[in-house]
Amino acid sequence: MIDLALKMLLDEKARFAATVLGVGFAAALVLVQVGIFAGLLQNASITIERLDADLWVASRNAPNIDFGNPFPERYVDRVRSIPGVERADNLIVWYAFVALPTGAKESVEFYGLEDFPAWHFPWDVTSGDPADLRRGRFVLLDASAERRFGAFQPGDFREFNGRQLKIIGRTRGALSFTTSPIAFVDYRMAQLLAPADLDGRTTFLLIRLAPGADVETVRAEVRKRLPYNDVYTRDEWAARSRAYWIESTGLGLTLALTVGLGALVGVVIVGQTLYASTTEHLADFGTVKALGGGNRTVFGIIAEQATFAAALGFGLAVGLTWALAPVLERLDMKMIVSPMLMALVYAGTQALCLAAASMSFRKVATTDPAIVFRG
Amino acid sequence: MIVLEAHDVSKVYREGPHEVHALRGVSLSVRRGEVLAIEGPSGSGKTTLLSVLGCLLTPTSGRIVVDGREVDPHRPGQLRELRRHAIGFVFQQFHLFAALTAAENVIYGLNLRGWTGEKARREAERVLRSVGLGERMDFRPRDLSGGQRQRVAVARALAGPSSLILADEPTGNLDGESGARVLDLFRSLARSEGRALVIVTHDPRVRTIADRVVTIRDGRITHEELEN
Ligand SMILES: Nc1ncnc2c1ncn2[C@@H]1O[C@H](COP(=O)(O)OP(=O)(O)OP(=O)(O)O)[C@@H](O)[C@H]1O
Ligand SMILES: [Mg+2]
C-alpha cells in the first residue's frame, strides 16, 4: 500500500515541521508544568513517605504534616500496649527561628524523634550520624538549607530560638512544601526549642505494626483509646497533606489552567494547519473518492497525519522536557515526570490531535467528489 | 457488449430558490472498445453528464447501467464499488497526487481498487510503459511536462480492470502535440484492451479518434453522428 498520508506530510515538510513544533511546545508545556507541580507536591509528603511508620496519629483535623497541633505525649503509652503494635513513638514537627551569621533570621522546620535510626529517618544522610543527636545540643541540617542560610559545615554552630546548636551533619532531599528548610533534632531538644507549646507534648505519634498485624484492627483500637485524635494510614496522611496544598494554594486550578491552555494551543495549531492542508488538498481527497475511496479512506489519511503530528510532537516535547531538567535542577526545582504522566500526556496529545482533525473530517465529508471535474 | 447505458437521465441542481436543469432526459449507450465523444457549448451539461455516468453524482431521475449492473442511487456503497471496479477517470486538471511519483500515483489508484503489493507494481509498470513513460516512473508530477502528466493520469485510469474510462477535457490543458499524443493513446488502448471510452471535449481533434460523436445543448442530446 502506498502511504499517501505520510508522503503528503513529507512533501510539505515546512508545514509539517510547524505543526510538530506547535504540538511539541504545547505538550512540553504540560509535561514541564505538571512535572514541576508533581515535584513540589512530592515535597509536601516526602517525609511521610520516607518515615517507616504504618499509622500516623495527629491532632484532630490537622491539615498536613507541617501544621500539626500539640497533644499530650503520654498518649503514646496507650498505643504501645495495643496488640499488633510493634513500635510507637512521638514525633515533633515544629518551627524555630535560626539566627544567621548575617544577622538575619530564617525559619526552619524541625523534626524531633527519640530514636531516629529506629524509623530509618532521615533517609539520605551525607555526613554525621542521626544516632548522635541525643548526645548533646546537636542538629542535622538538610543541604537545601544552604540557599536560605548560606553555606554551613558540620562543626558550625547556629542559634535556634536562642539556643546554640552544633551542626553535626547534613542530609539531602528532606524538603517541605512550606519551603522552610528541614532540621533534625533530638525529641527532648525539640521540646526545649519551643517549651511554651511543646512541654510534655508532641505533634504526632508514629506507629509501626508487627508483621501480620491488621491495619484496620489496630487503627480501630487506636481510635478507641485516643478518641480526640485522628488516625491515618501512611498513604492517607500523605494524600491529605498533598491535598491541603493543592486546595489551599490554588495550585490545582493553576495547573488545570496550564494544562487546558497547553491543550488549547495544541488543538488550535493542529486543527488550523490540518484544516489549511485539507482545504488545499480538497481536490486530492476528491480524487481519492473518485478513484473508489470512501470517506473512511479519506478520514484515515487525515487521522494518520494527525497521529504522526501527535507522535512526533510528543517526542519533541519529551526532548524539550529532558533538556530543561538540568536547568531546573540548578534552580533546585524538582521535576517529576512519571511514566504515568508521560502515558497520559501522550494519550492526550493523540486524542486532541484527532479532535483537531475532526474539523477537517467534516470539511471532507461534505465535499462532493464531483469537484474533481471543476477547476 | 454494452458497458454503459443511460436511460432518460435528468439532473436538477437546486441552489436555494433556483433550479438548474443541467440534464433533461439524456439516453445513450457505449460498447466495449468504442470511443464516444461528447461535444457541446459551455454550460450545456457535459461535465454533469460525465459525473452522473461516473457514479460521482446521482441523477434526479433516470437509470444508469454500468457493466450490466443497475446503479442504485440510494446505495452510496454501490456507487463507490462501481467507481472502484468498473470506472476510470481522466480529468482536465490531471489531479495527480503531487507527493507521489508517477508509478506511485498509478499504484495508489490500484491500491484503492484493492490491488496491492507486487501485483499492483507490475500492473503500474505495464500501463506506464504502454503510455510511453517507462523512463519516467520515478518522477514526481512537478518534474513532468503537462502532456506527460496527463499520460500518467491516463495510465492510472487504465490500470486495473475498469471497463469504462471517462475523460473530461483530457486535452484541455495540453498543447497541440501532447494533446494529439494523449488522444492517440486513448484510441489504441481503448481498442486493444476493449475498454469503453467517453470523452467530453471542445477539442475538434477528438473527432478523429471517436467512433461516435453526440452533441449536447441545454441538457439535451441534439445531434448524434457516426465517425470513421
Ligand atoms: N454544483 C452545481 N450546482 C449548481 N449548478 C451547477 C452545478 N454544477 C453545474 N451547474 C450548472 O449546470 C449547468 C451545466 O454545467 P456543466 O458543468 O455540466 O456544463 P459543461 O457543459 O461541463 O460546461 P463547460 O464546457 O463550461 O465545462 C450549468 O448551467 C452550471 O451552471
Ligand atoms: Mg465541464
Terminal CA distance of chain A reads 29 Å
Total number of β-strand segments of chain B?
A: 10
Gross morphology of chain A: elongated
Biggest interface, chains and residues, is: A-B, 27 and 32 residues
For the record, the CATH class of chain B is Alpha Beta
Strand order of the largest sheet of chain A: 3-4-9-6-8-7
**Cofactors and ligands:** adenosine-5'-triphosphate, magnesium ion
And the CATH topology of chain B? Rossmann fold
Strand content of chain A: 15-25%
**Please, what is the average pLDDT of chain B?**
92
Largest sheet features of chain A = 6 strands, mixed, barrel
State the separation between the terminal residues of chain B, measured CA to CA. 20 Å
Global structural class of chain A: alpha+beta
| Fourth CATH level, the homologous superfamily of chain B | P-loop containing nucleotide triphosphate hydrolases
Major sheet attributes of chain B: 6 strands, mixed
Helix content of chain B: 25-40%
The class by helix and strand makeup of chain B works out as alpha/beta
